[in-house]
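Here is an idea for our session: we take a single protein and study its fold together. Start from the sequence, derive the C-alpha cells from it, and show both lines together. Once you have written the record down, we can walk along the chain together:
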Amino acid sequence: MRSRDIRRREAGDLQREIVRLREEIFQNRFRGQSEEKVDRGLVRRNRRTIARIRTILREQELGVNTDLVTQVRTAAGTSESGSKKGGSR
C-alpha cells in the first residue's frame, strides 16, 4: 500500500488495517511452523506497511502538513540536474 493511498483513508480504517496485517503476519508464521508453503516476503512487506501506516497516523496526530512536505520534496527533485547519486566532482 502506497503512502498516497494510506493518507486518503480514515484513522479508524487504518487501525483496522493494522490489526488485519498483524493477523496475516501471525497466520503466515503459524503456517511456517506447520511446514506449509509460506510467502517469505509477506512478513517483511506487512511490517513495512504497518510502519508506514503508523507514521502517517502520527503525522496526522501532530498536525504535520504532509502536503507541504510533498511539495518541497517534489520541487527539490525536479530542480536538480542529473542523477541524485554521485554527482560530478
Q: What stands out?
A: The chain is about 75% helix and 0% strand. The mean pLDDT is 81. The two ends are 38 Å apart (CA to CA).
